[in-house]
């Protein structure tokens, strides 16, 4: 294998629409990560949030954000991982490179980054899970289009159900204790560790919680199939060229948008009302019906968002408004990891941290996300105007390809990028 064959994707080979989609999805991921992590039974108690002066607005806003973003942003993000997998496979094989070896190494590096991230920075990390599901995606690369789509749908739908079944089977779903869990005592302990600035104590607490709730309790199984299903559907879409040649399919994208976006919004609104509305009677199967409706609403609404972004990108005004997200999407790994530090800074009292867990509601958290992500958009554009890669993207590629690619942009703008 020659060095040229093993090089990353060049600037000319990029699909800017994918960068835009990734950048928009990253905003939604950041928003829901911060809002949910700062929420009830994780880093705040219900009473603490209800006592805030913004509590009425916070509650309404949380439901709106849950309706619009929860599980949809990470669905698009995972979908794009599978789509990117197929495009990289096409490009590397066209060069005569050994795709299997390179992508296996790429996933191993991602797994290590994700493991470090999970233990020391952000216990809700998704990178390690993407790497694990990516190994299966690599194994399934040659299945037929029909099977790829069928397996994708099945995995996407059974993941959560399988996790709940495992939880009930193991009996760990009712686990309690002072070192982890969702009960009030555990939340207050995490706040105490945070306010004391005890970094090692916080790491140990969340590691205990991860081992019990995420690994032993089977939550990782549900999220694994959740991600894999979306990967497979992304690869299936990649095979058809519906994103890479989106302009050729604009009539179909517009038709899809007209039907699927309203349907997704209505289905998810029904799921939210079933789960949250105090006006509905507390009948026995209400939560089950809410979960089932949400299960189907998420991919429908996510597809609606993708279709809306594709159509908007091919209009003059839409392209102008969405263009800033492309740079953020190209630096998705760097920006995702940076967001973890922002979450830690806001919620924990380690070092200069603000330790605002239990003292800040959804309204303020939304403002923090908007300001932070706007700064990331500006920084990403500035950085990529001078360098070929984001910092962590450079590290990822350097280890994957076994050599250090040039960080500076070349004069002809043909520096390797991906």
Largest sheet: none
Taken as a percent bin, the fraction of beta residues is under 5%
| SS elements, strand count | 0
Shape: globular
Give an account of the 3D structure.
The chain is an all-alpha fold and 418 residues long. 71% of the residues lie in helices and 0% in strands. It has helices at 16-37, 46-50, 55-68, 72-94, 99-120, 127-139, 145-170, 184-195, 199-216, 219-240, 250-276, 286-313, 316-330, 332-347, 362-384, 391-401. Helix 1 packs antiparallel against helix 4 and helix 11 (250-276) packs antiparallel against helix 12 (286-313). The protein is globular and about 60 Å long. It starts with 15 loop residues before the first helix and ends in a 17-residue tail after the last helix. 42% of the residues are buried. Residues 1-5, 174-179 and 411-418 have low confidence and may be disordered.
Summarize the structure.
With 418 residues, this protein is mainly α. The chain contains 16 helices and no strands.
Main features:
disordered N terminus, 0% strand, 418 residues, mainly alpha, disordered C terminus
